[in-house]
User: Which sequence fits this backbone?
């Protein structure tokens, strides 16, 4: 039973445009949601998180939106840059420290 | 060294070998984790250590044996592995309490079992 799903395995956007990465979840007990970025041959790097009591969190070019009624979150990157090309993982936290990850979305930003 | 380091970065082993993966965190964290990432699958949590005690074991086969001698070091001992165990093994650490949510990952060990 996959509790966190990223239905798009890949996304391609032009430099300067907006990238929107999506994530759906099923467990209403998740209290935090996180986004990680992963380059080849490196471990995942934390990007941004959002508490389940918020609907938006912004950090520079990255904004995460949470729609609890739809059990959906999204990561917006504006403007997209070629260096943003990586695999993006959505993760969700239950009580304590356990994180449940999605399958990842490969973002390619074309110059 | 900073952050979370893992050695070796690559490992090829036969099914009868015994090897160990090492993880070290330089962040002063009090929790450490082992994850497995297979191709096109989500990261799977294997083990969690909090304050050097194993608090979670996610139905992992006994051919994987973790060890956490102190809060900065974590090992994963491997023996009689199967080819399907070939994957990227990631170590992570975090600070429990203080409102920190994120885990910090090492670069991983790419394991190939022949």
Assistant:
């Amino acid at each position: 039973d996959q509790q966190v799903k990223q239905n798009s395995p890949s996304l391609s956007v032009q430099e300067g445009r907006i990238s929107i990465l999506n994530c759906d979840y099923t467990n209403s007990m998740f209290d935090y949601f996180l986004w990680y970025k992963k380059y080849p041959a490196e471990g995942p790097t934390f990007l941004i998180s959002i508490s389940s009591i918020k609907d938006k969190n912004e950090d520079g070019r990255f904004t995460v939106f949470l729609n609890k009624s739809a059990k959906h979150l999204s990561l917006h990157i504006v403007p997209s840059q070629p260096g943003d090309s990586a695999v993006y993982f959505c993760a969700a936290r239950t009580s304590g420290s356990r994180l449940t990850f999605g399958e990842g979305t490969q973002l390619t930003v074309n110059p | 060294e900073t952050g979370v380091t893992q050695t070796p970065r690559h490992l090829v082993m036969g099914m009868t070998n015994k090897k160990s993966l090492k993880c070290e965190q330089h962040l002063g964290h009090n929790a450490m984790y082992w994850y497995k990432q297979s191709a096109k699958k989500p990261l799977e949590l294997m083990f969690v250590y909090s304050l050097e005690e194993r608090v979670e074991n996610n139905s992992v086969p006994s051919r994987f044996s973790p060890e956490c001698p102190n809060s900065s070091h974590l090992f994963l001992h491997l023996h009689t592995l199967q080819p399907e165990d070939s994957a990227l093994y990631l170590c992570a650490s975090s600070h429990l309490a203080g409102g920190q949510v994120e885990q910090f990952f090492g670069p991983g060990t790419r394991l190939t079992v022949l």
